[in-house]
């Protein structure tokens, strides 16, 4: 495991945090592999990307048979620090309830790999990374990437690690899209697949919300046509608005009502003004402000675009079932009752296609009022059912439990 | 009825449209009443507003008994041109399916009044109006107004027109909030009240969406702290982003899927770029762009704030039923199944309070997949039930049908 020393105090100046973030784009605190120009990545956009690099983190130990590797795929603004401290924010891993010793994805038993996505900004090649041709950040010169490109890059990492078949590929939201793409692109390399709070295609409404976010970033004059790095600018206000709008979609009406209601923030009465009178306003502003220090605005454009472009059935003549035909993979599909960004109906579309393809599939809908974010939170039913599914799959795969024995 | 000649070609240059819009703020194409400093309006913010003016439109004829007046209250970005051409956009009245000769709100039978709201930008005093003290636009010097202030201003208009009791007050969304406020503030002056797709308080999630919109406007450097008028600027990009985000909330996932799905805009394949590849993106951008020419950015802040502040029960010791105690008004509450901005549960809260107050109430939930916008669209069940309710109420009130007889 990589050092978990925080490079920036969480409450430190935003300048420092941002400097750290900028440095992480090329020189991540995590492990990384650099692929040369002779090992270029062929992208869906029709271009070759090389040299390029992938940043990743690992937890646990790969067994001698190389059968216990679990790939965790992260969501839109996630990173490789799934179970260890984030070097920019100093916060614990984003899924440390799920991944770690004794956790459902038990690092005493499995070898866990998590890589920053292509197009991201935490060490895998993205628009904030240095373009080898110029030495300056790629910006919008980087070809637009897709979920399939992300998965291709991860497959190169898995090759490099000498792993033939992953025991499991697991992820929520955009991570779940990658899981589905993995199962479709490399069925023989995926023993089990766990797409959580995800969908096989991005809906019209979700594209709409992403478009609002992108327009907010691009409307900021400091975005400068994507060339803010070289001009010493930062479209922080635009990115903050984008994050605020997106953040609402991660929650639920019920959760917001329970958490904030119409409570006022540090005041007894409304101010008859445009300050943050309500707690929900103050909370959203905070979400926006903290986000801009850790995430590259152009990366936000690229990664949202990758999600928008995702439509797995379209790659298989419009038939999602065809994407999974003769699949040897065991699937575990999960949704949450109050998730309106990736509602249960989207997961059921996947389950139906898997059934039509005669694949092995389990489906769990978790009762929760926490919206899409539920997959990142402490949801006992999620942990219990994922642990159960993985234990069954591990038995079938012959992976011994910690301390020996099956 | 006022002349319906369009002052700007709908496809005309945005400069011209904007000039017309700016002029309408002080010199509306509709009727208007100017109240002097001696007729100031007492605002919830604790300040007196005067001189001030209210712009309104009327349709039909007030009967000799003055019993057939219907007040229509408009929504966030609506105006007084409920059933006649909008002078800025050249488009037909925003509710011309509902209001007009032979329509459910029949102008052959009723005398219909619709006023621009306080804080608006179509002729009633708002931040774009000239501040009498300076001759320049009020901007943020205008006190923040509330839904109750809007209703107070309308009551002054009704006084001026010599109408004691309104036969009906009707409106959707923010218009419905005004309807509820009318019934609470002036029960003896409201024979029947029809709040449609509304709520007795703005929810946490709705405040959140409004806050995103306001932040988008205020993040635009051209907003200039609200002083864009005098600086010859216009925060168009910020306001367009605000409108785009809001517009998503007016529709429904199902409607977007049916209308746009993942269809591409004027192209055969995705472009691997950030142009509007998808129809939904193109549609949203269009919504944003056309909005900025007709609406004042500061007005957007004021009117969204008024909605956020609305919490009728809070004015009655936390008991919504108390707001309607001993009410002589006949209520007709309507919601739409796919409306997630003002979901049915919010209407049911109102109905429950009315029942607890032993008020006379009918409730209809209309089956529609068109989301919140349904109340503005061609929804036969809405028209049929509202026509039926109004006819019954008119009979009870002794308003003759067109052509004589009850």
From TrEMBL, chains A, B:
<dbReference type="GO" id="GO:0009092">
    <property type="term" value="P:homoserine metabolic process"/>
</dbReference>
<comment type="pathway">
    <text>Amino-acid biosynthesis; L-methionine biosynthesis via de novo pathway; O-acetyl-L-homoserine from L-homoserine: step 1/1.</text>
</comment>
<feature type="active site">
    <location>
        <position position="372"/>
    </location>
</feature>
<dbReference type="Pfam" id="PF00561">
    <property type="entry name" value="Abhydrolase_1"/>
</dbReference>
<dbReference type="GO" id="GO:0004414">
    <property type="term" value="F:homoserine O-acetyltransferase activity"/>
</dbReference>
<feature type="active site" description="Nucleophile">
    <location>
        <position position="173"/>
    </location>
</feature>
<dbReference type="InterPro" id="IPR000073">
    <property type="entry name" value="AB_hydrolase_1"/>
</dbReference>
<feature type="domain" description="AB hydrolase-1">
    <location>
        <begin position="68"/>
        <end position="377"/>
    </location>
</feature>
<dbReference type="InterPro" id="IPR008220">
    <property type="entry name" value="HAT_MetX-like"/>
</dbReference>
<comment type="subunit">
    <text>Homodimer.</text>
</comment>
<dbReference type="InterPro" id="IPR029058">
    <property type="entry name" value="AB_hydrolase_fold"/>
</dbReference>
<keyword id="KW-0963">Cytoplasm</keyword>
<dbReference type="GO" id="GO:0005737">
    <property type="term" value="C:cytoplasm"/>
</dbReference>
<feature type="active site">
    <location>
        <position position="339"/>
    </location>
</feature>
<comment type="function">
    <text>Transfers an acetyl group from acetyl-CoA to L-homoserine, forming acetyl-L-homoserine.</text>
</comment>
<dbReference type="GO" id="GO:0009086">
    <property type="term" value="P:methionine biosynthetic process"/>
</dbReference>
<feature type="binding site">
    <location>
        <position position="243"/>
    </location>
    <ligand>
        <name>substrate</name>
    </ligand>
</feature>
<keyword id="KW-0028">Amino-acid biosynthesis</keyword>
<keyword id="KW-0012">Acyltransferase</keyword>
<protein>
    <recommendedName>
        <fullName>Homoserine O-acetyltransferase</fullName>
        <ecNumber>2.3.1.31</ecNumber>
    </recommendedName>
</protein>
<comment type="similarity">
    <text>Belongs to the AB hydrolase superfamily. MetX family.</text>
</comment>
<feature type="binding site">
    <location>
        <position position="373"/>
    </location>
    <ligand>
        <name>substrate</name>
    </ligand>
</feature>
<keyword id="KW-0486">Methionine biosynthesis</keyword>
<keyword id="KW-0808">Transferase</keyword>
């Amino acid at each position: 495991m990589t050092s978990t020393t925080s490079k920036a105090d969480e409450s430190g100046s935003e300048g420092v945090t941002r400097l750290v973030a900028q440095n992480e784009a090329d020189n991540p605190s995590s492990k990384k592999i650099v692929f040369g120009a002779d090992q270029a990545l062929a992208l869906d956009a029709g271009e070759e990307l090389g040299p390029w690099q992938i940043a990743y983190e690992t937890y646990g130990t790969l067994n001698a048979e190389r059968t216990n590797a679990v790939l965790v795929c992260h969501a839109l603004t996630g990173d490789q620090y799934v179970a260890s401290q984030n070097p920019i924010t100093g916060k614990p891993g984003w899924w440390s309830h799920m991944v770690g010793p004794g956790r459902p994805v038990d690092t005493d038993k499995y070898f866990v790999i998590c890589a920053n996505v292509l197009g991201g900004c935490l060490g895998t090649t993205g628009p904030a990374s240095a373009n080898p041709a110029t030495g300056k950040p790629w910006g919008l010169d980087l070809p637009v990437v897709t979920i399939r490109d992300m998965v291709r890059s991860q497959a190169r990492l898995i090759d490099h690690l000498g792993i033939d078949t992953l025991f499991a590929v697991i992820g929520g939201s955009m991570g779940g899209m990658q899981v589905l793409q993995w199962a479709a692109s490399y069925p023989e390399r995926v023993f089990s697949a766990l797409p959580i709070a995800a969908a096989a295609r991005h809906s019209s409404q979700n594209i709409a919300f992403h478009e609002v976010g992108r327009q907010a970033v691009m409307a900021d004059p400091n975005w400068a046509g994507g060339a803010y790095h070289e001009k010493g600018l930062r479209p922080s206000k635009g990115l903050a608005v984008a994050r605020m709008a997106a953040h609402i979609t991660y929650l639920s009406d019920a959760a917001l009502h329970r958490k904030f209601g119409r409570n006022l923030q540090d005041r007894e009465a409304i101010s008859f003004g445009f300050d943050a009178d309500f707690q929900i306003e103050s909370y959203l502003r905070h979400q926006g402000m903290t986000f801009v220090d850790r995430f590259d605005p152009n990366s936000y454009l690229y990664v949202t675009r990758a999600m928008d472009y995702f439509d797995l059935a379209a790659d298989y003549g419009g038939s999602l079932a065809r994407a999974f035909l003769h699949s040897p993979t065991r699937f575990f599909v999960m949704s949450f009752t109050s998730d309106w960004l990736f509602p249960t109906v989207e997961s059921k579309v996947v389950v139906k296609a898997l059934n039509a393809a005669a694949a092995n599939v389990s489906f769990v809908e978790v009762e929760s009022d926490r919206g899409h974010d539920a997959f990142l939170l402490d949801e006992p039913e999620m942990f219990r059912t994922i642990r159960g599914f993985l234990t069954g799959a591990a038995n079938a795969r012959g992976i011994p439990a910690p301390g020996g024995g099956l």
